[in-house]
Structures are given as C-alpha cells and as structure tokens.
Amino acid sequence: MVDITPTPETMEVDMPDVGKVVVAKDVGEKLIKSRDSLKEANRKAGERLGALESEKKTAEAAVAKAAEEKALAEAMKAGEIEKVREISNRKITSLSEKYRGAALERAISANANIVPEAAADIAAQLAISCRYDLDTDALLVSGSDGKPRVDKDGKPFGVDALIAEFVENRPYLRKASGTSGSGAGGSGSPKSGQSTNMAGLMAMEPKARAKFFADGGKLTD
Questions:
Q1: What is the mean pLDDT of residues 123-144?
Q2: In Å, how far are 49, 108, 144 from 129, measured between CA atoms?
Q3: Which residue has the higher pLDDT, 137 or 140?
Q4: Which region among 44-48, 115-119, 122-126, 162-166 has the lowest average model confidence (pLDDT)?
Q5: CA distances (Å), 117 to each of 39, 145, 176, in order?
Q6: Strand 130-133 vs strand 138-141: parallel, antiparallel, or unpaired?
C-alpha cells in the first residue's frame, strides 16, 4: 500500500475528479490557486449561460402568451365554446406547472444539505412526481400510477421526503460534509513513482489522475 501521508515539506490538496492528494507545498499552493481560479471561471460561465437561457425562455414565453391570447379572443368572438374551454384549460395547466416548478425549487433550496446550484435541475427531474393544486395552493406528490403517494403509515408522502429520497443516492448533489483540503502536516512521505507537471496532470482523464496518485505518482513544478 502506498504511503501518502503528508510531511512537513508536503501538503494535502483536494482536487476535482481526483480527491485528496499529497504534493510538495509549493506545488500544492499553485494547485490550489489553479483549482480555485477554475472554479470561479466555471461559476461565472454558468451564471452567464443561465442568464442567456433565462432571457431566451422569457422571450419564447412572451411570444407564446401573445399567440394564445389572440387565439382565445378569436375563439370567443366566433362563439367557439369548445375551443375557448380547450385554451382555458391549457392556460390553467401551464400556470399549475409554473407554480409547481417554483414551489419545488423553494422546497429544495430550503434543504441546507443540497448544493444550491442543483436546485433547478433537481426540480426539473422531480416535476413528474408532483402536481400543484391551484385550489389548495399546495404541492402534492404523486406515485407512478398518478395517484397521491402515501408513506408506510398511509399518510400523504411529503415533498421534503421526496427530495430527501432523490438525493440519498446522489452524493454529488449534497454539500461536502467536511472542508476542502488546503494543507496539512504529518509524517512519512510518498513512495517513488512516475512524475508529471501540472499540464500533464490536467490532460489526464479523471480516473487516470486518481490512479496516478494512488500509484505514488509525483507532481513536479
């Protein structure tokens, strides 16, 4: 078994797709700086992409709403009752789906154990299991048969329980329980193995990086 315990001359760094690795302190400091810079760049890119997607959806929704209102007005003018009912029901369904998504995101965001950025994605995946009741202003959980879902005691299955069930086997959606590694001292040293520089490490596939360090690989300046 390879000894990768940090020494006074090394430090432990938590790297994406690899986990915690032990490297020379000067290299570790550069890795941390590079890692944090990459995180910030990804965050900004994600925010920008999200803003553009939001603008696109808003524009598409406005066009669809105008077309629907025009169709409703024409149907009412022509006395087409069935068409009026169809359009009205479609508007109610759309409104219910909108409220369902917002209510789901609020419930997910209220869970302190979930990564905030994942709220919208989780809500999209759980939407099929929920419906929003406009009469009671409540979010209800449905089973695979479309009927209200109940727990083992026969009581309504709550939204919070649905969210907890969904993220239970998806650790990547949960916040890390500990702090990210930035440096630690100890005894022992990594055994000899292959070495590469930072560019070489970043070019590796995630599994290859993990194996590199597990086999005693060293990161050079």
A1: 88
A2: 27, 14, 8
A3: 140
A4: 44-48
A5: 13, 31, 14
A6: antiparallel
Please compute the mean of the pLDDT values over residues 152-166 and round it to a whole number. 91
Tokens of 81: 């009752």
Band of residue 159 on the pLDDT scale cut at 50, 70, 90: very high
**What SS3 class is residue 113?**
coil
Amino acid at 152: K
Q: How high is the mean pLDDT of the chain?
A: 77
SS (H, E, C) 174-210: ECCCCCCCCCCCCCCCCCCCCEECHHHHHHCCHHHHH
- The residues, ordered by sequence, that sit 6+ positions from 103 with a Cβ below 8 Å of its Cβ are 132, 139, 159
Nearest CA to 47 out of 39, 59, 35 is that of 39
